[in-house]
Write a structure and sequence with these properties.
2 copies of one chain form a homodimer.
Chain A (H helix, E strand, L loop, with lengths): L3 H9 L3 H7 L1 E5 L1 H8 L5 E7 L11 E4 L1 H7 L8 E6 L11 E6 L4 H13 L4 E5 L8 H7 L8 E4 L1 H7 L4 E10 L9 E6 L7 H4 L4 E4 L14 H13 L1
Parallel strand pairs in A: 2-3, 5-6, 5-9, 6-7, 8-9, 8-10
Antiparallel strand pairs in A: 1-4, 2-4
Helix pairs in contact in A: 5-6, 5-9
């Protein structure tokens, strides 16, 4: 049985203010939930269809009907399993390593994809500006495919973070130097800008290096790459 | 005035069978529509809010109210402009150059992002398997940001296409050789597989080269990259 209050609580977690109030977030899908169950995230409650088996302390697992699952799910076609997990305490950013810093990323799919890339390319720290979309937004969590549990993510005032950091700061700007004509250090901060407006001028002026992914066909009208695919190209170039 | 039949027609274009019946597709947003207006696509009709100005033959432009725009739009928050364009006739794939071949891509956002990448990296031909999502699906068109007008896209039987082609065929497979330890030709076909299942075995056996994007942190549980970000990394590596 899923109570009315439980449904209300779970559905409220699509909103950031309620996630911050209850310090809980939602993940859906058997594969994703199983991965988060094995991670450092503390489980609040797992809801799963009666015909599914899940290897967990029984008090943490609630068997539900398809109808009940539909009531708590955020997906158009609910999967078999939904997990509610605790949002961990704020952690100070790690020092050193390869870091990605996001200046105002708004699209949950883009942030989720970037978190997945950070996991693949061994990024030590993902720094988000305070106005970047919340990483515990359910759409972000889904898009990370479990990488949310393996990447260090912190939300900070990025101006003061960049001012205090002694690491070389690379910013992706149209007028930058081609990424293919330079070599990159192991320890660096790569700054990626907002989908529509790029990197804010107040951040741009803190750059040590301006870099760009050159367009192959200069005659093309293509204006830019999507921020997640640009991050993929840059991480590959830093790591190759 | 937008007639009931017009609304019905435009809304039907979210479905492939009606796009194929009427040979029409929809694009939304002032910037995107303006870009397609300047392209080789033939305009059927542009709908735009009364306060907007559009530089076009007046018979092709219909001024609409916000209420009317909402009725024909596929977006949650409709933009100011919606365009209906003709789907051009089937074109035979170009020979030579760098080609991307998609084996069963299902997500419209992924296909749109890949089309945008093909534009940026000067891909001569994008080949899609017959079961890849339709490139005139409105979500694909939106995600291309206008690149749909600049990339050659063809849907074919990919088995016979690959069997007939004499170009070297690169397939991205887990067990492939690192992309960072080889050099690539200018003329090649890069095959990318379905989001969940990768490249079909019947296609895999047509590979000349098996390649992979190595994971930086081998201890990480990350299983794969998103197909669009993997395409970004590969295209950058072929073009660098």
């Amino acid at each position: 049985m899923v109570s009315k209050n439980e449904i209300k609580l779970i559905k409220s977690l699509t909103q950031k203010k309620y996630r911050n109030k209850y310090l809980l977030f939602v993940a859906e899908g058997e594969k994703l939930v199983n991965e988060l169950v094995k991670s450092h995230f503390k489980i609040k409650q797992i809801y799963t269809l009666e015909n599914r088996d899940i290897d967990l302390d029984k008090t943490l697992v609630k068997l539900v009907t398809e109808k009940e699952l539909k009531k708590i799910s955020n997906l158009v076609t609910p999967n078999s399993t939904l997990g509610v997990f605790e949002i961990p305490a704020f952690k100070k950013p790690l020092k050193g390593g390869l870091q990605i810093l996001l200046d105002g990323i708004k699209d949950p799919g883009n942030l989720g994809t970037i978190i997945r890339l950070c996991d693949w390319f061994g990024v030590s720290q993902l720094i988000c500006s305070d106005d970047t979309v919340d990483c515990f937004n359910p759409k972000v969590v889904q898009a990370t495919m479990g990488s949310i549990a393996r990447v260090n993510i912190t939300y900070v005032d990025i101006v003061s973070y960049l001012e205090k950091s002694e690491m070389p700061k690379y910013m992706t700007l149209m007028q930058g130097d081609s990424i293919y004509r330079q070599s990159f250090p192991n320890d660096a901060i790569i700054v990626m800008g907002n989908e529509a407006n790029g990197i804010r001028p107040s951040i741009q002026k803190l750059a040590d290096y301006q870099i760009t992914i050159p367009k192959f066909d200069l005659g093309s009208n293509a204006e830019s790459l999507n921020v997640a695919t640009a991050t993929a190209v840059l991480l590959s170039e830093f790591r190759r």
